[in-house]
Amino acid sequence: MSLHKKAAASIVALATAFSLTACGGGDDSDVIKVGTTDQGQKQWQVFTEEAKAEGLNVELVPFGDYSLPNRALEEGEIDVNNFQHLMFLADFNVNSGTDLTPIGATEIIPLALFYKDHDNIKDVEDAKEVAIPNDPTNQGRALHMLAENHLVVLKDDSILSPTPADVDEAKSKIKVTPVDAAQTVTAYQDGKPAVINNSFLDRGNIDPTSAIAQDDPQSPSAEPFINAFVTKADRKDDPDLKKLVDVWHSQKVQDALREQSKGTSVEVKKNGPELEKILDNVEARIKESK
Q: Its domain of life (predicted)?
């Protein structure tokens, strides 16, 4: 066989092998990878089942903390994530120079204060110290919530994401101690009052209804804390990704979410453009504050 014919035969063989591979069981081009930090919760199991019934092949990709799912999305390791509110997303976009985009709302989960074996806010005052998440957006939300419940006084309550430096310690009833969001559960288990994100309550076997105080999800000021499905800007109109939002709002998923959150989650139905408007406003305020 001539060199030319050998080369041609090799090309045909390679093409045939590629074709067989593409047609085989190893093809996962139709898999939608969804990043989340609370994949063990009941609503996710129901969600994947309902998505399958709608012809969507969903693979949940778990992450141990909040710093990873957006990076994974930006780097193309996942297709979409659902773990964050718009304030968190805005802070990430502004500080990372990215344009990750919300495509549909899910719910608002109140941010709450917990104190093991206590049910009175006066007990928190007596404890003198509260652990709060140290990521910028949840830290700011926690401080606003503590201020609304008269445990701390902010020097300027118009600041979008205050830090402990913005707390007037002389006028406040307690001191705040920022820790990693996952460590707020440890603080709680060690007998300290703590503001704990809903995603971590299961890890500490904490009843969401045992909160001593929380923010108001019905307030207009709560809009930045709407949770959402988020993807890269160039995929915001992907029909399969949009269908994930519809699946999330199906009756079975919502029933599972209400059971999981013990009725504390508040369903929100806002589309991508509505969420982008809120996000743009929050991002602009973050940039102004720098």
A: Bacteria
- How far is residue 176's CA from residue 161's CA, in Å, rounded to a whole number? 15
Query: With bands split at pLDDT 50, 70 and 90, how would you rate the model's confidence at 28?
Result: low
| Residue 22 reports pLDDT greater than 60 | no
CA distance 200 to 219: 24
Per the document, the length of the chain is 290
What's the predicted TM-score (pTM) here?
0.78
DSSP 8-state symbol, 271: B
Confidence of residue 218 (pLDDT cuts 50, 70, 90): confident
Helix (H), strand (E) at residue 45? helix 42-53
Which CATH superfamily does the domain covering 31-109+221-289 fall into? Periplasmic binding protein-like II (3.40.190.10)
Per CATH, the homologous superfamily of domain 112-215 is Periplasmic binding protein-like II (3.40.190.10)
